[in-house]
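Researcher: Hi, I'm a grad student and pretty new to this. My advisor asked me to get structures for two proteins we've been looking at. I'm not sure of the right format, so I'll just paste the first sequence and hope you can take it from there.
Model: That works fine. Here's the first sequence with its structure tokens right after it:
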Amino acid sequence: MIQLKSLDILGLGIRLDLKPETVMPLSMSDPDFEKITPAEIDLSSGTVKPGPDSPPVLGIKEAEEHQQLQKKNTRILAGIFSLLLFLVLGVIFLLPRFVSPPQVDTATTVALTAPASRAPQVSPYEEAQRLQQREDAQHVLAALLELQKALDGKGVQQWAEQEFNEVVEQAGAGDAAYREQNYTQAQVFYQNGLSTLQSIEAELPTRLATFIAQGAQAILDGQSDLAQHAYGMALLIEPDNEEARRGLARAQVLNQVLELLAAGTTLHENKQFEEARDLYRQALTIDSKHPAAQAAVNKVNKDILDRNFANLMSKGYASLQANNPETAEESFKQALALKPGSPDALAAIKQASDQITTTLITRHQNEAHEHEQNERWQQALDAYDAALAVDPNVVFAREGKVRSESRLQLDKFLVSAINNPLRMAEEQKIHAQVQQVYSDAQLIPDKGPRLSAQLQQVAIFLEKALQPVNVTLRSNGLTRVTIYRVGEFGQFTDKSLSLTPGNY
């Protein structure tokens, strides 16, 4: 039994009023020292739930400030613990020297009884280890919260819901271990959650590429909603991704493009090619990258080309049948311009050219024949030359040219003989030549009226050229007369001579 009223320890001004209560030593394991636990943190929102005796911890910055506050509190608590230990030692060893036994009539009787049992003492080393373990767990948790915040900004719960739920489960298990002061196990759970988030972060490029590919395929499949969702997920992961932005814009107008393509297809099937092409081009104006729209434009352009080509070819063959090869050739050349190198067009052009050649040669042949019939040998020769200019190998033209040239020379010779008949009488050589030509010309079949008349006239001249003609010459009797190639007749007044036709 110790009877105490009050005590000023060592004159330090610290006064203790002792009451009949049992004073238990404080321990670092006392719940009053637990100001906050990571279990209060809600990973799904990135915030910290405030405990009943601690301020809320929100996000990474607040978690770091909380850690600094805990370190400060730890130092303060260590100081308080040292002071209390000093006071307890003072009470035990120094107090009895300065306290006199209490008077029975004035003192308050205090019965000090030892407690039945006390909590086991925790050594400073063990306490320091626990503090370090808690700090390590909090560091892992801070990293987890920081990465979670970054992924939340990318909509992780929308495109990695299952993995994120696993992180929440791991964090919850870590919180439970933390509340039980099993900081090592809590760190393991937090690390598992952090590793899962790190795996998600590492897969961001792959997930981005996958969503973009899904969007592109959905556009090809005509699924606007699916394409918009895929590109939307891609933009959550990387908001500045230009490919995803363009893809989303295309997906948003996809239904309009598909409606235009469907209407164009109906017109296309009804052979309304130009109208269909207009709709296809409108679709391309809305989405210049849509493969079906571009393919539709290409197809209708080909169909228009084929139709126009076929029309020109039909027109050309109709002209050939109408014996108008020049018009046909022009149509075939237009068709060839539409399809350069087309074998059909080239063959048709050759056919038209051959027919033009044939027609032209036939025309020249007919002209030459007509001129021959009328014994217009110069014109006939010109016609044969024109035919040979079209085709030098035409046999009738080559033969006709030789015949026309021969008859033309004969005609010229006979005309000259007829126009100068006295030459036949004056020159024996000319007479013989005309006689020979005359004889050869008689062998020509189907002489024609002109040649026959010429030969008759020449025959007359040939005969008369050799028959003497009685001529009476009269002179004045004073002039000496000489006739060239006949002789000298001297002077006479009248002279009768027999002379062949000619100039004397």
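Researcher: Oh nice, that was easy. Here's the second one.
Model: And its structure:
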Amino acid sequence: MSEGKELQQIIDQTLQLSHGILAEYQPEIEAQNIGSVHFVEKGVALVSGLSHVRSDELIRFAGNRLGIAFNLDPDEIGVILLDNSEDIDVSADVVRAGRVVDVPVGEELKGRIVDPIGRPLDEKGPLKTRKRRPVERPAPAIMDRLPVEVPLQTGIKAIDALIPIGRGQRELIIGDRQTGKTAIALDTIINQRDKNVLCIYCSIGQKNSDVVKFISKLRDNDALSYTIIVVGSGEDPPGLQYVAPYAAMSIGEYFMERGEDVLVVFDDLTRHARVYRELSLLLRRPPAREAYPGDIFYIHSRLLERSTNVKEEKGGGSITALPIVETQAQNISAYIPTNLISITDGQIYLSPELHRKGILPAIDIGKSVSR
């Protein structure tokens, strides 16, 4: 009889112990939301089955190919591809990455050439930084900003004397093709040597050969050590070109919040607008004026609004933006140029007539202004 009681006690203790173990057990495997590709075109894909995806979230395709959730429709998701569409098959599985698109930041980027999501392009090995920031971030609040008072010298007397640029300002460089817009940006970057200004050059839709020439000129003038190059070239998928300026601005914000002065050059936002129009039309977004989507003004305003001069409690640094825009036949009243003129704090207008006469830089003082 006593043996039966002892056996029952052992059984009860075993059951209590097993109940405690089950109560504390946390499953390590979570259910994963898996979607499927049902349409692929150059630069975009349509995906179904990802019910809880967020806007701007990274999407992973087979082979670790990446995309950005762009259109969130009830039955499908429009995805901007960050890799070549030829590598993605219809009916392939896709999963959520669980984070929005971001870019690596840190001191390790100085002197490096990277693509808009931080992949090295200069054969100097992988980036060793572990810090990352979303490419889309809110602009600093008005109360966190300071007046623009310290000048940023370009080294070009016509600009520094007549239309000076301040640290924290947005100054548009505008003119027809082959009038010296990129040359002004290049001279400005070279002039920042020994002035404690970090420079970021963002190439959007340029030919690789042009980017290589620009980098070689920086290297010849010992300017590459304080410059970060972000390249979304014309040979890259449209999604990378679209993300490029936002990635460059996020890298600049990291240094601004550490108290440094930063100069960011966007070369150029005309191509950026065209890439955004291409992606929007492929994803069937309704076209508006000149077939651009209705939010074309917003994509540039939310980018350039992030350049400013912030208070000491917010870091005390500044971001000066030099966006470049190309005009056709000197038409500065075209859609994209007028958008950018209204966003920025002034413009440097380069005249093709002065350029043909050999007056360099070909700055038309009458149409240039710094506010």
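Researcher: Is there anything I should tell my advisor about the second?
Model: You could mention this: The chain has a mean pLDDT of 92.
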